User: Fold this.
Amino acid sequence: MNIQGYKQRTYAHASIWIGAIIVGISAVLYARLISITQEHYFKNFTEHPVLMAALSPFIFVFATGLVRKIAPDAKGSGIPQVLEAIEQIKQSPTAEGIEKADLTSIKTAVIKVISSTVGILGGASI
Assistant:
């Protein structure tokens, strides 16, 4: 293998490791966010059970509204969306094809995090 081949392989390996690190850190931060939000909900529910029970449906509607208005692709568990995005990229592996696979876009991910956090504030089981 020539020097160019080694460089390409090194860049590919580096990008995979960097991506894995970013995903790992994001997962830990998301888990901590949900844990803190859940603790906040339980504290509020213990102190004001009637108020929290009355607010929960409105909080759920708000979380659902975020998804429907801003990023409809953020609905559901996300697993079918990721599988569909992989298929879209396989069919068109060019940069344009990857850009069209917005099922897994940053916007979708951010809205999924925000809406699930809001849902947890209302007592949702997410």
User: Anything to note?
Assistant: The mean pLDDT is 86. The CA atoms of residues 108 and 126 lie 17 Å apart.
